[in-house]
Amino acid sequence: MPSPFPTPMLDLERRPGRPAVLRVPATGDAPGWAAAHRDALRAAVLEYGAVLVRGLGLRDSAQVAAVFARLTHHLMGEAEAFAPRQSHPGGVHSSTKWPANQQMCMHNELSYTLEFPGMMLFACLTAPETGGATGVADSSAVLDALPRDLVARFEREGWLLTRCYNDEIGGSFAEAFGTEDRTQVERYCRANGIAFQWQPDGALRTWQRRSAVVRHPVTGRRSWFNQIAFLNEWTLDPDVREYLVDVYGPDGLPFTTRFGGGEPIGEDVVALLNGVYQEHTAREPWQSGDLLMVDNLRTAHSREAYTGPREVLVGLADPVRLAHCAPTVDVGAR
């Protein structure tokens, strides 16, 4: 049976400071429209890094799951999570729980893992009253804008993520690894290049080195692909950071990032990284029913502070292995 939709012709709006926007007429069959436009949309995301589709009228998780399934090869789960998400049928998740009055800084999703989503999908069911945009930033442009000596150091050393799992603050190791079985946790860590140490009180400390710069497996473009700034202690609210350091000490923070050799990353470096991200951020306020597709290797994303209810569903799709992205450091997996 022929498709009820015409041959895809994407008339994208391109304006400075905004992602590419595609306005579509309401069809009453968002999954069917997505299936008919899948290849054209994916090609546009590959070219521009992110595309916002406006007019589909997405309204519930079942419809969103159907649309996500038609736009992707495979929807994946989340490993080594930092904050809980609510899961919905069909591989759809809630947004990461994060205080509404705090910005979620730019990052590439799960860039500290050895297998991460090649594409991120976001569907807005309820737009906030103010703020709350999901900003995007071209990771290749960010890389080109960073100081050459800083990039060279991260290329040589990579970046180090340290985590301390306890029952008092942040996610537990059971939530992050999906099991309370220490043997299974240890097996996962060894297979994924994560050094670990059990503490006398039962807490778990981990260290993992990752590449800060990668090559896109399709286009070959180099990108600043990491969560160095987002997961660093200096991105925390100053009062929160001071409290955590007082209680747990500088080596006992729930998470922070370092240079790959283990040297702390200073507040000045974090401010520099966030400043460059800000200079390259494109944003478009959410409208209820919107769909945003993001190439996770090419494009970082953020979430701005907001007021009022906000419901954005997320799909992590099309897994990519770090080994296929020309990492610049040995991550120690076995």
UniProtKB/TrEMBL annotation:
Domain TauD/TfdA-like: residue ranges: 31-313
Cofactors, names only: Fe(2+)
InterPro entries according to UniProt: AlphaKG_dependent_hydroxylases, TauD-like_sf, TauD/TfdA-like
MF annotations from Gene Ontology: dioxygenase activity
Keyword list, A-Z: Antibiotic biosynthesis, Dioxygenase, Iron, Oxidoreductase
Protein name: TauD/TfdA family dioxygenase
